[in-house]
Design brief:
Elements (H helix, E strand, L loop, with lengths): L5 H20 L5 H7 L8 E8 L5 E7 L6 H14 L9 H4 L2 E8 L3 E2 L4 H7 L6 E6 L2 E5 L1 H7 L3 H11 L13 E5 L1 E6 L6 E4 L2
Antiparallel strand pairs: 1-2, 1-3, 3-8, 4-7, 5-6, 5-7, 8-9
């Protein structure tokens, strides 16, 4: 999937980092300042911002929007602040800690339903290309494509882990009343904290 070039990807990652920096340093934080700097990004895509420890690679926060509903220049700011300060799995990021974190931005294609029975669903996805969403009633869970690659899951494991992320039994992905969706991403990530941004191919 290719939406943006490296210059645009770098701008989005820097907007994410600047949002977190300003939130930590400005007493009366105004997100419109950063949003204005990324205002040329008017396209509407889903987006996730991920924070990882530079030394260990440990996840430190990941929040986003599976579907585009606002200009991506605005969404990246909101996702960055949420990833740093509102991810319920972690305590808020501190100012000194930010210096040790890598920031990455994933741009998502529109999710499409995976149809068919269990065999057809498994055949319809590919690790290294697709991300997954599981939806059932008020339960919902999403895993980005890079997660399955890093964890070395096969397609079946990826489907199971997405259901677990949604709070469902692992085998629910095969149930016809459970909606499974797939999407692709374009991923831009800092090579060092606050440093050069590269597009990640996996």
């Amino acid at each position: 999937m290719h939406i943006y070039g490296i210059e645009e990807g770098t701008e989005l990652v820097k907007a994410a980092r600047h949002s977190i920096e300003l939130y930590l340093t400005v007493r009366h934080f105004d997100s419109s300042v950063v949003k204005k700097s990324a205002s040329r990004f008017t396209e509407q895509y889903g987006i996730f911002v991920t924070l990882e420890n530079y030394q260990t690679g440990a996840l430190r926060g990941c929040i986003g929007f599976p579907r585009g509903g606002s200009p991506i220049g605005e969404s990246v700011v909101e996702a960055a602040i949420a990833a740093a300060f509102e991810d319920p799995r972690f305590v808020p990021v501190s100012r000194t800690e930010l210096e040790d974190l890598l920031v990455s931005v994933s741009i998502l294609s529109e999710p499409v339903p995976i149809k068919g029975d269990a065999k057809e669903r498994k055949k319809a996805i590919k690790v290294g290309r697709d991300g997954l969403i599981a939806e059932y009633g008020h339960y919902s869970g999403l895993l980005l494509p890079i997660v399955a690659v890093e964890q070395k899951w096969n397609e079946g494991q990826f489907l199971e882990e997405t259901c677990i992320k949604a709070g469902l039994p692992a085998n629910y992905w095969s149930q016809p009343n459970v909606t499974m969706l797939k999407f692709e991403t374009q991923l831009f990530k800092e090579e060092t904290p606050g440093g050069k941004v590269a597009e990640v191919n996996y």
